[in-house]
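Record passed on underneath.
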Amino acid sequence: MGFISFFLRKYFMEKPPILIDSDEAAAYERLLAQTNPEAGAIEYDCPYPKYRFIAYMTEQKAMLVHGSNHTAIDRFETRRQTLYNGKYVEAVFATSDAIWPIFYAVFNRSKLYGNFRNGCIRVKKNVNRFYFFSLTEATMNNFPWTSGTVYFLPKESFARSSSGFVYFDEWISRETVAPRYKLAVSAEDFPFIEAVSSHRSEESIMKTWLLYKRRIREKLASRQD
């Protein structure tokens, strides 16, 4: 497990530590108490980054999350999709991670050229999470960011899509799911907005992984020239 974590830490971005004290938790409880349960739209006015609130909801309220450009989804219907391993499944997708769904909420899929690659990877019995986010150069030049919504879904009907030692933080439900809450987000709420790299559509996923952090460093360095 040590070698795998070392590899992931070397090549991917690592989730920042999230330790929520009693004052921060109280702020989130106040936020939930003032949210209309019928509409479920959270009017976020807390001073903490939104991904921390999302983490609180997944860890303390047994919620999973789903990010989307669409802002008015009342029910998530199952549909044919692919798992991280390419296997087809008829399901609703969600994650227990607080950052990954923000990417899906603020990445404007209508601006996509070629393909895009991303993931939240976990190691069994390890609390750390590791990420990669990569778009083609044409997509990056097409102003691909927008505002979107993170939906909070009850966890009961979901199961983790993989039982492997190393796995993507994907959960699937084979039933229609109604969200309990929703939270508006923008690109500024995505903590890894500067850690989105560029790849060639035809290159292997392994090459994208191995060059991910190097490409981020080169991108940031070019801005300083």
Notes: The mean pLDDT is 94. The first helix runs from residue 2 to 11. The first strand starts at residue 13 and ends at 14. The chain has one domain: 2-217.
